[in-house]
Specification:
Elements: E1 2-5, H1 18-27, E2 32-35, H2 44-53, E3 57-66, E4 69-76, H3 79-95, E5 109-114, E6 126-130, E7 148-150, H4 159-173, H5 195-200, H6 206-218, H7 238-257, H8 262-277, H9 281-296, E8 301-304, H10 311-315, E9 345-349, H11 353-364, E10 369-377, H12 380-390, H13 395-403, H14 413-425, E11 429-441, E12 452-453, E13 461-462, H15 466-471, E14 477-482, H16 483-499, H17 509-512, H18 515-522, H19 535-544, H20 549-558, H21 561-566, H22 568-577, H23 587-593, H24 603-612, H25 618-629, H26 635-651, H27 656-667, H28 676-695, H29 697-706, H30 714-723, E15 727-729, E16 741-743, E17 746-748, H31 759-772, H32 778-784, H33 789-798, H34 808-818, H35 849-858, E18 890-905, E19 908-916, E20 922-927, H36 929-934, E21 942-952, E22 955-965, E23 991-994, H37 1003-1006
Parallel strand pairs: 1-2, 2-3, 5-6, 6-7, 9-14, 15-17, 18-23, 20-22
Antiparallel strand pairs: 3-4, 4-5, 8-9, 10-11, 11-14, 12-13, 16-17, 18-19, 18-21, 19-20, 21-22
């Protein structure tokens, strides 16, 4: 009898989570019900599965609304009916036009209108819904009773949820709760009651009951969850697909391995067999087709993730990881027991990704391609801000609510209510958005399964997420972007332009086995290099003296939280540095994990141990691996396979204590860990970046700057370029572009870095220069570019007119003469003609003024170093390069703060700092919680540091005892305003990163055994 139920997927309207809605239906004795969320089908597939589990007939539909105004309800009689509604809604979403008051003609959809707004004439498939409270209006009704059905909408469960519904409606309308109109909200009766009670309301009208039952009976939506929904074939049949894939695989094998390689041939044949059996040939070929197009455009891509476990992917050029070299298990990617489909993760430069997307949509059709959707949930901070706003709280109180934990918030009745309803909303979907990378390519039109929306990005999205997509049979294609590839790609182009040298960076042999690159790697000289530039990673590389590919692959994985938290990272470092001070506690660990000293650091290691220690088949090992590191990452899932593991180990004759310890290590992965192929992909890309940094450091740093950096701010990469021999120039109207440019070893910072300069103006400067040549004077510039006085002054202060030969002070006087005092940035120079030459006075200017201008306009000085701006001449007793010689000694240093990372511990918050000394070299510090109370960080700038040097496996750090921020010289621009002379120093930046994870256990809490266990 319930043909109009809303879940919380009726965004900012419904209040009932889907599982709770079905639980309520069971309690009310329902045997059939319809899910009709507003303008969406987000929940229908989970709804179908859940209903069948409790023997309720699921009916799927959509409640159509236009700008929150109810139009009608559509119920799908079958799959064709759902497709009809999806196409109808998609059309209106794409055109951004209001839904019509009357439904179009559908062939397999039943339409229900509201009693008060039904059209005079109804089609065969159209009905009028009458609510229980409206039954009294049927007295004297002249209409056709054959067209009346029960309409009992369900939107909330309780009185409290009704208020929650009103809060959601106020949030959606961006109004105060008190300003809601009756038309904005549901009626108080929209709850689910027992079947008997609902039927009793219509006892005088058995015809209505009969009609409603007929509607329910006529809806028979069946969905096959097991059949793949992706595009079936790349060619035109399964047979021709596997034939083409086989041909391409053998061609690629000859390219990768040569013609005589029995191991590669056996692996290729094994994988082809599994791929054919599971009918994934088309998936591989479509991915290959995308890569082929990318290569034809000269784009660089990185294939990573578990797909790199496949030798077929390697032979097709999808990945650059040899699975034989690294002993990667194909079963980790694809096996006969894997229930969820695999996917390839492929990265492009952020500048080229949209071109790849356009190719996919054009090649496979906009009707058949769409992005996965995703639900953006109400988050803790945004909840209190959103809810507080509808209660009428002022901005400062909203800020306080959003930024502080509940225990620190005010204790009044309004705040308590905001907290109460805010917590009810936690994890509720708030709005739909586009998945960052997941693309579906469907055999049938995508609208067979869902309506589509067109977000501002310009690519259509489905109305369900990747988990639902997988559950109904889609294998998504992950088309990602990252700035690290932009670093590599742009460097190669810059080197070709600047030096005339062409680099085949795709040939990974030139970077992976390069001695100088390995030397940089072992010293942690990796800033700018993708995954290996963070302070933590550079410290790890130094602790390991990492100087080869396989150690880098391991390092890329052991730094992950799952491995680090388990204690395996620390143990790996110990065993790497002291290979004679431990025993493998079982021969299987020496045989299978010898490369990583018997430590499980990759997800594949779980498969190896399950296979060779536990006696499980590889496919079952992957089930264990997925249970402990799958999308849910939950220990509950792991528990389900725990008994099977111990049973199998016992059959192998293993001691229970040993099996318990091995399982403890497996279980520790339940947080996060990498598959080995993923780590290897990151290692290859890191090597490519490092090779370019080693041999072409200036071009590389320009590329990093133009791709908007990585872990650090622009200033750090400018410093790296200067240390490599580059000369840094401020933006110049005749030399600079919007991005940073390179002329030989001279770097001209781009206009994009100049704060306060509108992008439109920057582009106008460049366009005019391109059309009519360089600017010969500031007067010439002002006659050719539409600019206001304030923007002109900004260019003067940064030195953009230095080629004129005039000083900044002279240019400022000239600018005032050129412009009427009333001119603003929205007005042009009043007279577009040559200007009288003035004899300008020579004005004194402090040499520090330029540096302070640069801090204001660029965030960092370029004319001087920050050390040159200090009042103190002291530069430290010890330099960073010598710290390793001062183990356990107290040192006094002066350094510039680059970044700090907050880390939780059982004793409170501690920080790790990264600094540059006077010589330009980096070092790291440790700040314990009790020390930070007395000597806290005070923002960016230079600090005097006193601390004890600790050398941990070749890596020195300074444990801080005391620190104090050092003052700059007074800002000479404010010589007449003493209270402003130190304000600019406060604008010096620092990079601060935080983590909200639980504290890692200490060594004695882990107690990883180092002796043989029998």
């Amino acid at each position: 009898m319930y043909i109009n139920c809303h879940s919380y997927h009726s965004l900012r309207y419904g209040t009932i989570p889907l599982d709770d809605l079905i639980e309520k239906a069971v309690a009310c004795g329902l045997t059939a019900m319809a899910l009709t969320d507003i303008n969406t089908v987000t929940g229908i597939y989970d709804f179908i599965t859940a209903c069948k589990n409790v023997n309720i007939k699921p009916i799927v539909g959509i409640e159509f609304r236009s700008n929150s105004e109810f139009r009608y309800i559509g119920l799908a009689q079958n799959a064709s009916g759902l497709a009809e509604m999806n196409r109808f809604l998609t059309h209106h979403n794409f055109k951004d036009i209001a839904l019509p008051v009357e439904a179009p003609t559908f062939e397999a959809v039943l339409i229900i209108y509201a009693f008060e707004s039904a059209p005079a004439f109804l089609k065969t498939n159209e009905y009028i819904g009458i609510r229980p409270e409206e039954v009294g209006k049927l007295f004297g009704y002249k209409g056709n009773f054959d067209k009346l059905v029960i309409l009992q909408p369900v939107t909330f469960r309780t009185k409290k949820e009704y208020k929650l519904h009103k809060i959601l409606r106020a949030i959606d309308n961006n109004i105060l709760l008190s300003k809601l109109e009756p038309s904005d909200i549901a009626t108080t009766s929209e709850v689910m009651v027992s079947q008997e009670r609902l039927i009793a309301a219509y006892k005088e009208y058995p015809q209505i009951l009969s009609n409603t039952n007929a509607v329910i009976e006529s809806c028979d939506f069946q969905f096959d969850f097991d059949t793949p929904k992706n595009k079936k074939y790349y060619t035109n049949s399964r047979e021709s697909d596997i034939a083409l894939l086989t041909t391409l695989a053998h061609q690629g094998m000859n390219w990768r391995y040569g013609k005589e390689n029995p191991a590669a041939l056996a692996r290729v044949e094994k994988e082809l067999k599994v791929i054919n059996e599971l009918n994934f040939s088309g998936y591989f070929l479509i991915t290959w087709d995308i890569i082929r197009y990318s290569n034809s455009r000269g784009f660089l891509h990185i294939g990573r993730g578990s797909g790199a476990n496949s030798i077929i992917a390697y032979c097709l050029g999808i990945t650059d990881i040899c699975p034989i070299e690294l002993d990667l298990y194909f079963e980790r990617f694809l096996n006969e027991n894997r229930k969820s489909p695999p996917d390839f993760d492929i990265d492009w430069s952020w500048q080229e990704r949209d071109i790849i997307l356009e190719y996919i949509f054009n090649r496979y059709g906009y009707e058949n391609v769409a992005f996965c959707g995703t639900n953006v949930e109400f988050k803790y901070r945004s909840i209190f801000r959103e809810v507080g706003k509808v209660f009428g709280l002022p901005k400062d109180e909203l800020d306080h609510l959003a930024k502080n934990p509940m225990r620190l918030q005010q204790n009044n009745s309004v705040v308590k209510e905001v907290q109460e309803y805010g917590m009810l909303l936690e994890k509720y979907p708030n709005q739909r958005s586009m998945h960052s990378c997941g693309i579906l390519i469907s055999e049938d039109p995508i609208t067979t399964y869902t309506p589509l929306e067109m977000p501002p990005k310009g690519f259509p999205i489905v109305l369900f997420d990747m988990h639902v997509a997988e559950s109904i049979g889609f294998e998504k294609f992950d088309i990602l972007s990252q700035r690290g590839i932009g670093h590599i790609d742009d460097t190669v182009k810059l080197v070709a332009k600047n030096r005339g040298i062409r680099i085949n960076i795709r040939d990974t042999k030139i970077s992976k086995n390069e001695l100088k690159a390995n030397s940089f790697l072992s010293q942690g000289k990796t800033i700018g290099c993708f995954y290996i530039e963070s302070p933590a990673m550079r410290g790890l590389l130094r602790r390991l003296k990492c100087d080869n590919y396989k150690i880098l692959v391991a390092a890329s994985s052991i730094i992950r939280p799952g491995v680090a938290k388990s204690g395996m990272m620390k143990e790996y470092i110990f065993r790497h540095n002291h290979p004679d001070q431990f025993e493998y506690f079982h021969k299987v660990f020496e045989e299978q994990l010898g490369e990583t000293y018997g430590i499980m650091v990759y997800q594949e290691d779980v498969i190896k141990i399950a296979l060779h220690y536990g006696g499980l088949p590889a496919a079952d090992g992957d089930i264990l691996r997925r249970a402990m590191s799958g999308k849910g990452r939950s220990l509950t899932a792991l528990q389900k396979v725990k008994d099977h593991f111990f049973e199998s180990c016992a059959k192998q004759g293993h001691a229970d204590a040993l099996s318990q310890e091995i399982y403890r290590q497996i279980e520790s992965f339940a947080g996060y860990s990498f598959c080995k192929a993923h780590s290897a992909s990151y290692a290859v890309e890191s090597y490519q970046s490092l090779y370019l940094k080693v041999y072409y450091p200036i071009e590389f740093m320009v590329a990093v700057i133009n791709n908007q950096g990585g872990f650090y701010r622009t200033e750090v990469y400018v410093h790296e370029a200067r240390m490599a021999g580059a000369t840094i120039h401020n933006p110049c109207v005749n030399k600079s572009e919007f991005t940073t440019t390179l002329y030989g070893d001279s770097i001209y910072l781009g206009f994009m870095h100049l704060q306060g300069l509108p992008e439109k103006l920057a582009n106008a400067i460049l366009k005019e220069r391109e059309l009519h040549g360089d600017y010969v004077s500031m007067e010439d510039f002002c006659n050719r570019v539409k600019i206001g006085l304030e923007s002109l002054k900004l260019l003067i202060f940064i030195g953009a007119f230095r080629e004129t030969g005039k000083t900044k002070n002279q240019l400022l006087i000239l600018a005032s003469l050129l412009f009427n005092s009333s001119v603003t940035d929205n007005q042009m120079l009043l007279l577009q003609e040559s200007v009288k030459e003035y004899k300008l006075p020579t004005l004194e200017r402090s040499r520090f003024e330029d540096a302070f201008d640069e801090i204001d306009l660029l965030d960092f000085p370029t004319s001087f170093t920050v050390f040159d701006l200090l009042q103190s001449p002291f530069r430290g007793d010890v330099m960073a390069k010598d710290l390793i010689l001062h183990h356990k000694k107290q040192v006094r240093m002066l350094a510039y703060l680059i970044s700090r990372k907050q880390v939780p511990t059982v004793r409170g918050t501690m920080y790790f700092g990264t600094w540059i000394d006077h010589e330009g070299n980096y070092f790291d510090t440790t700040h314990f919680p009790d020390n930070l109370i007395q000597f806290p960080f005070q923002g960016g700038g230079c600090y005097l540091l006193l601390g004890i040097v600790e050398v941990d496996y070749h890596f020195p750090t300074v444990t801080i005892l005391k620190m104090a921020k050092m003052p700059f010289v007074p800002d000479p621009r404010y010589s007449d305003a003493k209270d402003h002379q130190y304000i600019t120093q406060e604008n010096i930046k620092e990079d601060v990163s935080r983590t909200s994870r639980d504290p890692y256990p200490r060594a004695h809490e882990i107690n990883l055994p180092r002796n043989k266990m029998v």
